[in-house]
Amino acid sequence: MRLKSALLGAAAGIALAPAAFAERGADGHLNIIYWQAPSILNPYLSSGTKDVESSSMILEPLAGFNEKGELFARLAEDVPTLANGGVSEDLTTITWKLKPGLVWSDGTPVTSADVVFSYEYCTHPEGGCSQAARYEGIQSVEALDDMTVKVTFTAPKPNPYNAFVGSTSPIIQKAQFANCLGAAAQQCTDANFGPIGTGPFKVTEFKPNDVISMEANPNYRDPAKPAFATVTFKGGGDAAAAGRAVLETGEFDYAWNLQLAPDVLAGMEAAGKGKVINAFGTLVERIEMNMTDPSPSLAEGERSTVKHPHPILSDIRVRKALSMAIDRNLLVEVGYGSAGRPTCNLVPAPEMFASDNTECLSQDVEGAKALLEEAGWTDSDGDGIRDKDGKKLSLLYQTSTNAVRQDFQALVKQWWTEIGVETELKNVDASVFFGGDPGSPDTFQKFYADVEMYANNFDGTDPEPYLSQYLCDKIPGPDNGWQGENINRFCDPAYDTLVAELARTGEIEKRAEIAKKLNEMLTKDSYVVVPLVDRGRNSAHSNTLGGVVLNTWDSELWNTSDWFRVK
Amino acid sequence: MLTYTIRRLLIAIPTLLFISLVIFLILEMAPGDPLADQPLTVPPEVREKMRAALGLDQPAWVRYLLWLKQFFWTEPLHLVDSLFGTAFADPTGRIVSWQFRAPAMDIIWQRLPQTLWVVGLAYVVGVVIAVPIGIISAYRQYSWFDNLGTFVSMVGFSVPTFFTGVVLIIVFAVNLHWFPSIYDTTLKVTDWESFLKQARQMVMPVTVLALFNASQISRFMRASMLDNLQQDYVRTARAKGMSEKVVVLRHVLRNSLIPVVTVIALGIPTIFGGAIITEQVFKVNGLGQLLITAIYANDLPMVQTLTFIFAALTVLFNLIADVLYGVLDPRIRYD
Question: What pLDDT, in 10s, does the model give residues A449-486?
């Protein structure tokens, strides 16, 4: 009997052997290149996406999003929902439970105190936390016991998955950051450059804006992962060089966000060393219409404010005609190739929130012309430009400086000229345009132009905060220092009411229905926002790197624990 | 000479203060925002708080005086502390970079070796090949060697490094696989193998920069030699029956080197400035790349500190060049 069980055990051991090849660190070294170099490894003090993504290999939140935008538990035992009782009936609390036996990479246990501390760290008024928005509307975060954390909201929150969800709000170690609260956050260089985490890797050396050296976390919760023993995470250069290093020379295994012309990328891929992968999220390149008058003849402080409605664009027929004249398919072909698709929606994804609005996809120049005639804009003096009451149909079209955007401007100008609209083009350096300096006349918030083009998206999968940007009270103006996200100065009481209804609705199907309606009110019902391209993301990995799943809902490096070397 | 040097050093103080003010004002007036890289999903109230945490809510003159205090008082004290293990400096008062939320000087020290190795070596290589080329070109003026030298230096001088760099990468990294296209800054030279690796990754950036430096200096060398070869003392030396070797290398070369040494000395601060473009192309990530990324990120404390250090080095090497001039040429006396 003894012998038999010993033999059985041996047989079982042999049977299990093939699975054991997935041993931690068995696949050697991994090389990742980001052409924007990480500056800091603490996402709460980050200055951009590159910092958040690089630190996502080290720090983890309670739950994250997978490639389909679905929530899955990371440090939490499972995702709390109404159904499993984790979210209270009145939608005001959510209770998270940590996985048992979790330890930090230094071997100490992860407890609810760390979770509470992460909240305190980011919400400290003097800390300047970049991710403070994720902790908005929270009344308190308390530890019920060592493993349980209860978050109480100030009002019912139909989408309670902001705090501690996704790579932008990870759990940091209390013991390491305890002396780094508030203004002291700046002094904690060692902690900011080498956070202790729970992720598959830990930092061995960090050279800011240059390179991160990492090794497998010896205390990672899955003893078989990660497959790579060490990682070099190089930053800097440009997208073309990063693409070349993966696709042509094979020096690197993974390159992030290759914003390159479609033909350039195809040429690199032809070298046969790697593959370009793409995925779509919620980033939409759009033209925004200014509903107020940006005329320089108005006094400073009155330009582009609600005091003066736009003389031309206040008419929906003009806005619609401008949209109809655009050939979105051509824009995609010229600018984005496989990393773009034409869209008429402000909220293009997740699928359940995306409206089936496709009317704008086919260009209709004749229809646009007819609509302008109907609106009273005719070419009375025969110079090719329409006019009405002695005023020319002439628009100033601004965007940030970027090769693709300037191509788009040129194409759109051509189509608008065809329908008799004179267009003046302007481009502003991105750091100024998006900088938000209230003293500059060239920011996208000030909108001293008739139409402007840029791209925006929303965090995670819930479009509510995004759609609430278009509320009447979020219009930027001199009284609020030009801060405010309602760039178009769109104001519709019906829209405001519907957003309020969305905020009260917990049921996911109903939320989707309302979100679709809101999206349509901004796009096909009013043409205040004219979406052009749903922009996906191109990244590349070498043929020898396996397990890569491109995720646009969370960090691209969300599953590095599953990456392996193809042999 | 000593009084002259001391006088020049004293004049340098107001000059540098003025330069620091000009740099600060230019950066202050320049458009841009350190939060421009933040995703648009970060709401305005959060941005306001982040700005305050960076100290941007203070008026400009306060920030300027604070920077002066940090640069001329706290940072030197900190240096003393780290050298002698003392504790004079206030650890919270250092110049903090906005991108890294870490002391700017620490990052600069970290970057310095890479830059000195690649850019410095390229400068040395450039000088070493430029001087003989200049001498031969001048001595055999209009020969095929001179014409070739002129052609190569024209190419080296007029073709930008971002072009030569990418051409080298495509030929030697993409097609031939001889050298890596991306510089590994984590490589530590410990044995023969890692030394070879280091040498291999330095070949392309050093070649690109050395070509650029050599073409500049060889032209100076050639012009200076030509000036001297026409002089009467050269004819005298030949008339005295000296060999051509002695005439050229003793008499002419020595005199011709005086202006060239000045040019070389004045070029040394540019080594510390790094090679912004070449560093980007080969991902050497030294001081040049640090400066350009700081400019893109509107990291004003970092840009201010770096540009000021470059300014100070330029002033210093100007002085050194002037003093060298006096040392090398007995005809020149400052007192």
Answer: 999 999 988 877 888 888 988 999 889 888 877 878 89
B239 and B179, same domain (yes or no): yes
Taken in order A14, A15, A17, A18, the sign of the CA dihedral is: positive
CATH number, domain of B117, equals 1.10.3720.10
Minimal C-alpha gap between B74 and chain A (Å): 15
Task: Write out chain B residues lying below 8 Å of A179, CB-based.
Answer: none
**Which member of B47, B91, B100 has the closest CB to residue A187?**
B91
Based on the fold, state whether residues B217 and B159 are members of the same structural domain. yes
Helix (H, G, I), strand (E, B) or coil at A530: strand
Q: Is position B31 within any domain?
A: no
- The one-letter code for the residue type at B121 is L
Reported ipTM: the value is 0.80
Tens-digit pLDDT profile for residues B210-219: 998 999 899 9
Task: Kindly state whether residues B81 and B199 are assigned to the same domain.
Answer: no
Preferred mutation among A204, A257, A347, A431 to probe B, highest tally of B CBs within 10 A? A431
Query: Would the CB atoms of B99 and A186 count as touching at under 8 Å?
Result: no
* Amino acid symbol at B97: S
- Do residues B199 and B121 both lie within one domain? yes
B33 within a domain of the structure (yes/no): no
Residues B215 and B89 in one domain: no
B279 inside domain: yes
Tell me if chain B has a CB within 8 Å of the CB of A333. no
Of B101, B128, B143, the last residue of a domain is B101
User: Which residues fall within 8 angstroms of residue A451, CB to CB, at 6 or more apart?
Assistant: A287, A288, A289, A290, A313, A322, A395, A396, A397, A398
Q: Please tell me whether residues B91 and B176 are part of one structural domain.
A: no
- Residue of A52, A129, A130 to mutate when probing chain B, most B C-beta within 10 A: A130
User: Cβ of A457 under 8 Å from any chain B Cβ?
Assistant: yes
* Enclosing domain of residue B244: 106-328
Q: Do residue B283 and residue A244 have CB atoms under 8 angstroms apart?
A: no
Q: Among residues 171-210 of chain A, which lie with CB inside 8 Å of chain B?
A: 183, 185-187, 189, 192-193, 205, 207-210
The mean of the pLDDT values for chain A is 89
Mean pLDDT of A557-563: 94
B62 contacts chain A (CB < 8 A) = no
Per-residue pLDDT tens for A259-314? 888 888 889 999 989 999 999 988 999 999 999 999 999 888 889 999 999 999 99
B35 belongs to a structural domain: no
Question: Are residues B114 and B178 both part of a single domain?
Answer: yes
For chain A, positions 343-402, list CB contacts with chain B under 8 A. none
Final residue belonging to a domain, choices B82, B101, B120: B101
Is the pLDDT assigned to residue A239 strictly greater than 90? no
Q: Is B297 near chain A, with CB under 8 Å?
A: yes
Which of B28, B29, B38 to mutate to test binding with chain A, by most A CBs within 10 Å of its CB? B38
pLDDT confidence of residue A22 = 67
Give me the helices (H) in A438-562, please: 464-467, 493-504, 508-522
The enclosing H or E element of B204 equals helix B192-229
Q: Calculate the average pLDDT of chain B.
A: 88
> Does one domain contain both B97 and B110?
no
Beta bridge partners of A87: A94
> CB contact, 8 Å: A441 with chain B?
no
With CB atoms and an 8 Å threshold, state whether A48 touches B40. Answer: no
User: E-assigned strands of A209-342?
Assistant: 211-216, 230-235, 254-255, 274-289, 340-342
Nearest to A118 by CA among A107, A105, A104, A129: A129
Residues A334, A502 contacting (CB under 8 angstroms) = no
Point out which residues pair with A285 in neighbouring strands: A455, A533
Residue of A nearest to B293 (CA): A209
The residue in chain A having the minimum alpha-carbon distance to the alpha carbon of residue B93 is A187
Indicate the residue of B96, B98, B285 with minimum beta-carbon distance to A236.
Answer: B285
Q: Binning pLDDT at 50, 70 and 90, where does residue A12 land? A: very low
Number of domains in chain B: 2
